[in-house]
Amino acid sequence: MIKLLLLASLGLLSAASDPKPFDCGTDTAHASEDFLNTIASLHDGQTSGSPAARAALAARDKDNNSAITVDAVFHIVAKKDKKADITDDMPQAQLDSLNESYKPYGIDFNLINVTWNTNDAWAVGDKDADLEMKKALRQGTYRTLNIYFQTDLSGGVLGRCTLPSPIANGKSDPTVYANDGCNVNANTMPDGAMEGYNAGKTAVHETGHWLGLLHTFEGNSCDGPGDFIDDTPQEAQATDGCPDAPPKQSCPEQKGADKNDPIHNFMDYSIDSCYEGFTALQHDRMHHMYNMYRDGN
Ligand SMILES: *[C@@H]1O[C@H](CO)[C@@H](O)[C@H](O)[C@H]1NC(C)=O
Ligand SMILES: *[C@@H]1O[C@H](CO)[C@@H](O)[C@H](O)[C@H]1NC(C)=O
Ligand SMILES: *[C@@H]1O[C@H](CO)[C@@H](O)[C@H](O)[C@H]1NC(C)=O
Ligand SMILES: [Zn+2]
């Protein structure tokens, strides 16, 4: 959910707002119990169990792999003096970036609405203002992806997003429900001002969380379940930039190709030009999670 700003090199934030890596509700510490149980059981099913259980899972995966079209609503939220930074063609360019990135994984996006808002408090989105904004702007249902592109997103991050949870079933808590969606620094939209991060891939990364993926370095350890996905190499440290030569190896004890960190994976923190895609099991996980939590809700 979180991408760290390279504070020093970008010089866009004062050092006083030095971010903590996981302060945005996108790590397992902020996930619902239901979400955690689900990823643990999907993870176990992929690696263990009887042949019959694995066959059943494979069959279910097959059902879960039919194409998904996600309805999306983009909310442009600018400070008064930053309105001009976000041009009319940026939402469409952002949609193209999402479509292009997710197309190999059977997911595309249908942009059903764009709202344009000028509000200095919402553009920063501190806690109360964030909820007020989302209550005012959120559209659609639990399967509608709402992304808030804010010119001055707070917290020293480029984005954050909610993980799926069963809240939609009862629609019991309007506050939690309204909160569902992604906050993205608007300058990361294609041709935005955030150098290195302005090809629209922050929204791609955040949408990965919305579809149920964790960071490839979740847990920051060479042991343990990490991101609960077996075909992403274990990774103890988030990536900055694109350190591919020599390859970054935060868990050098791993075997073979898994020695190299998954720096090209959308769920790492690499720069936009470094990102290449998701893995096969991340693909399966997103389809599962969408069908389980979002579709029909
Ligand atoms: C997809 O997977 C979810 C989670 O395992 C399951 O609840 C759902 O029934 C599956 N959908 C289909 C169409 O098989
Ligand atoms: C993105 O996907 C949607 C849904 O399939 C489609 O309507 C739209 O034309 C696509 N846009 C691009 C640029 O591919
Ligand atoms: C788009 O959003 C506006 C609010 O900004 C709303 O009035 C309108 O009904 C929405 N259109 C659709 C197609 O949902
Ligand atoms: Zn993230």
Automatic annotation (TrEMBL):
Q: Which residues form a coiled coil?
A: none
Keyword Translocase appears in the UniProt entry: no
Membrane-spanning regions, if any? none
Looking up CDD domains in the UniProt record yields: ZnMc_pappalysin_like
Signal peptide segment: 1-16
Q: Which segments constitute the Peptidase M43 pregnancy-associated plasma-A domain?
A: 142-289
Sorted keywords for this record are: Disulfide bond, Hydrolase, Metal-binding, Metalloprotease, Protease, Signal, Zinc
Segments carrying the region annotation (Disordered) are 224-259
Q: Name one GO biological process term.
A: proteolysis
Which SUPFAM superfamilies does this chain map to? Metalloproteases ('zincins'), catalytic domain
Sequence similarity: Belongs to the peptidase M43B family.
- What PANTHER family is this protein classified in? METALLOPROTEASE MEP1 (AFU_ORTHOLOGUE AFUA_1G07730)-RELATED, PTHR47466
Q: What's the protein here called? A: Peptidase M43 pregnancy-associated plasma-A domain-containing protein
Species of provenance: Massariosphaeria phaeospora
